[in-house]
Design a protein that fits this description.
Layout (H helix, E strand, L loop, with lengths): L3 H14 L7 E7 L5 H12 L3 E7 L1 H10 L2 H15 L4 E6 L12 H23 L1 E6 L3 H7 L3 H12 L3 H17 L2 E6 L2 E6 L6 E3 L4 E2 L3 E4 L7 E5 L4 E3 L2 E3 L3 E5 L2 E6 L5 H8 L8 E7 L11 H4 L5 E6 L18 E4 L8 E4 L2 E5 L2 E2 L11
Parallel strand pairs: 1-2, 1-3, 3-4, 4-8
Antiparallel strand pairs: 5-6, 5-18, 6-10, 7-9, 9-15, 10-13, 11-12, 13-14, 15-16, 16-17, 18-19, 19-20
Helix pairs in contact: 1-2, 4-5, 6-7
Length: about 375
């Protein structure tokens, strides 16, 4: 008998995350899954609600070969075919197992650039993100448990705890933060090796409570494109395009990354990411993380960007929901945790602190620390 927690998660995905309606088509895309329980439940529940489920299974090792060996013409055709399918679906759920998070680490940068431009951008950034009700999540396995430094059993318990929160309560608790971000003009962030200012005036604010990612718990907007000035050190390890980086440090001038370095990882590869296109040196998202059950980084951005007491800043493409006009084939969430054990820090709106050392300091936001 399947673990009943899968049933709970499947119901959240169908009814809360993508809100599947009768007559709608759902695409379930599965990457490196060892267990078919969740996709089978999603097919069953989609049919029960009068929907149509399509399922695609992928192996990251095969994707690597397609990217590595494919000519630009081949990758463009692959993207064109998959975009045509995405045009016909109203909902999308991405289930990612990720046996090896470094699978793409040895693919040459020019091949990754072609994949991002000719596949990821048209299929996902331009179509899936903007025209479907979508949700992406990782599924627990021993590789993820190892990343988190936990036993497999302990990690599974942690996984279901953080993924099956009361998202209706989270939505209610996020509303005051949305209002404060809507009203704010200037943001200042200070902390160890960090002093950054930017404007969010006029940019929409989007609360995230289980409708695009599971686990969830963030509220995002975007800096006015040319407004960021200062410097920042991110204290959360990160994986991007299969490569690992620690202690990423960026310096901004008039919105543009003018200097990039890292304490760990290939600094030249880091800089090549920012040279992917003009928009790669500008920022497309800024978000405050507030999932109270996620406390430590595990090099998995779907978890790390929601860490309690964190925020992330994202060089690259802006989302349509909070659009500052920046366009790029990259979108790289970089996380700083501001709780005391990570060095502390302050977020202030128009000169008034709203979070200090990872805890909200105004009464209407304090429920977020315990959602």
């Amino acid at each position: 008998m399947p673990d009943p927690r899968w049933e709970t998660l499947a119901d959240i995905l169908i009814d809360h995350s993508v809100r599947l309606q009768a007559g709608e088509t759902l695409l379930v895309e599965c990457f490196d899954l060892a267990d078919s329980t969740l996709p089978r439940l999603l097919v069953e529940k989609a049919a029960a609600r009068g929907g149509i489920a399509l399922v695609e299974t992928r192996d990251a090792r095969i994707v690597r070969e397609l990217v590595l060996r494919g000519s630009p013409e081949a990758v463009e055709k692959w993207g064109r075919i998959d975009r045509a399918r995405m045009d016909q679906v109203q909902a999308y759920i991405g289930l990612r197992g990720a046996w090896n998070i470094s699978e793409m680490s040895d693919v040459p940068p020019e091949k990754l650039d072609a994949y991002n431009a000719l596949y990821q951008k048209p299929v996902h950034f331009e179509r899936r993100v903007t025209h479907t009700k979508w949700c992406v999540l990782r599924l627990p396995n021993s590789s993820m448990a190892q990343q988190a430094g936990m036993s497999t059993g302990a990690f599974e318990d942690f996984y279901f705890d953080v993924c099956t929160l009361d998202y209706a309560k989270m939505a209610k608790d996020q509303a005051p933060l949305v209002a404060r971000m809507d009203a704010a003009r200037e943001v200042r962030i200070t902390g160890p090796e960090t002093d950054l200012t930017f404007s969010i005036a006029g940019i929409p604010v989007v609360p995230c409570f289980g409708t695009m990612n599971i686990p969830d718990g963030e509220v995002f907007t975007a800096p006015v494109r040319d407004s960021i000035d200062g410097h920042i050190r991110f204290n959360t390890p990160t994986i991007y395009q299969g490569a690992s980086f620690d202690g990423v440090r960026l310096e901004f001038r008039a919105g543009k990354v003018v200097k990039a370095d890292c304490a760990g990882g290939d600094a030249e590869k880091l800089r090549r990411i920012f040279d992917a296109d003009e928009g790669a040196r500008y920022t497309g998202e800024w978000s405050i993380g507030c999932n109270p059950k996620i406390l430590s980084p595990m090099r998995d951005i779907l978890f790390d960007e929601k860490i309690a007491g964190s925020f992330h800043l994202t060089p690259g493409n802006a989302y349509d929901e909070a659009d500052n006009g920046n366009r790029s084939k990259i979108h790289w969430d970089l996380v700083q945790i501001q709780r005391p054990e990570y060095g502390g820090g302050v977020i202030a709106f128009d000169g008034a602190p709203i979070r200090v050392d990872g805890k909200f300091v105004v009464d209407d936001l304090k429920p977020l620390d315990a959602s």
